Inverse folding.
């Protein structure tokens, strides 16, 4: 309910209040936008970048790279993906950067788990993730934590740039 009488709110022509006089979004002023869900295309696109992890591991296995040599590669890859997530969400001015990147992390974890399970079904060495469901939960959870951290950074960047744009 809008308590400021100096602001007139006019309903669109198609708006019909219920008989009780209840408006569809109580407590929201006419200038506040409706809450929006994250763009699913953005979430899926950014989440698919996590598929680079298993692809990198397969490539390094095929090239015969030792496990210890992969650690720096995986760290740099995570940093590149995290920076990409933050920059894309910040530059596109996503409506809810934190929620967008949390969903991105969960989607990326699910994409990665499905790809790894698919690979493990057709390669020697057994089913792997299928016999350890806690590993799937771990993959999704770690990606969600990474998405949360990146989302907080992107949200901070958007807030800082919005304040800077609004000041003369």
């Amino acid at each position: 309910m809008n308590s400021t009488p100096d602001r007139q709110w006019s309903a669109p022509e198609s708006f019909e209040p219920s008989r009780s006089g209840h408006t569809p979004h109580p407590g929201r002023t006419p200038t506040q936008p409706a809450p929006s869900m994250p763009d699913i295309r953005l979430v899926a696109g950014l989440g698919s970048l996590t598929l680079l992890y298993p692809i990198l591991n397969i490539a390094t296995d095929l090239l015969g790279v030792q496990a210890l040599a992969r650690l720096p590669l995986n760290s740099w890859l995570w940093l590149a993906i995290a920076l990409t997530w933050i920059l894309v969400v910040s530059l596109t001015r996503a409506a809810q950067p934190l929620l967008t990147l949390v969903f991105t992390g969960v989607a990326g974890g699910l994409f990665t788990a499905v790809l790894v399970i698919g690979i493990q079904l057709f390669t020697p060495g057994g089913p792997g993730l299928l016999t350890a469901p806690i590993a799937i939960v771990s993959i999704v959870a770690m990606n969600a934590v990474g998405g949360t951290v990146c989302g907080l950074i992107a949200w901070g960047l958007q807030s800082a740039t919005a304040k800077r744009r609004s000041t003369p």
Notes: The chain has a mean pLDDT of 78. The chain has one domain: 40-166. Helices lie at 40-47, 52-63, 67-91, 97-122, 133-166.
